[in-house]
What does this fold into?
Amino acid sequence: MKRALITGGSGAIGAAICRQLAQDGFAVIVHANRNLDAAESLATSLSAEGYAAEAIQFDVSDASATQAALDKLLQAGPIQVVVNNAGIHDDAVFPGMSAEQWHRVIDVSLHGFFNVTQPLSMPMIRTRWGRIITISSIAAITGNRGQVNYAAAKGALHSATKSLALELASRGITVNAVAPGIITSEMTKDVFDADAIKQLVPMKRAGKPEEVAALVGFLASDAAAYITGQVISINGGMI
It folds into this structure.
């Protein structure tokens, strides 16, 4: 059974991805940083339903802690699906943005991508099969006021995705990014009201975490073996 690590697996989108991949036959590793209880609850629920699941806690922005956690996981064998979903936003207009706001968002999204993906890449290469999927944002494509830090981090991940895809294509490993628009979650519930969503989204509704998860599930499948180096938007027609 192939193993899948989903960072930020305790959040709405992450949890939906964990459930999708578990249903697709992967042994899922539900990652959390601060919300370990939610990750453990999800893993317990999935296990009770007959799926293979476990929870793990570490800060993706802490390189040494991440390495230690991954080394322990790798003792049980390679991880062949990595979903880089961990991310935060700390919004402010750029003239008023603090250095701490800038660095923290970059650290989690961009440095976290490196800290998680790089140590898992060589074990994955040895299996000649793998899926690296990074959850980005529409903000990386269109920009967004008050999110220069967030857009910069996610935009850098698009470039990293395309470059890493070229390096790993001959090894049977695909590398793609998924860029959601407005998706129902704790992160967006206080940002967009119903009227704003109707104005911004041609489909007149927010997306569901399960819809993002379905796309991730497809990209992780054998059916998507010829799709790599792509940034795939899921946003109800916003762009």
The first helix runs from residue 12 to 23.
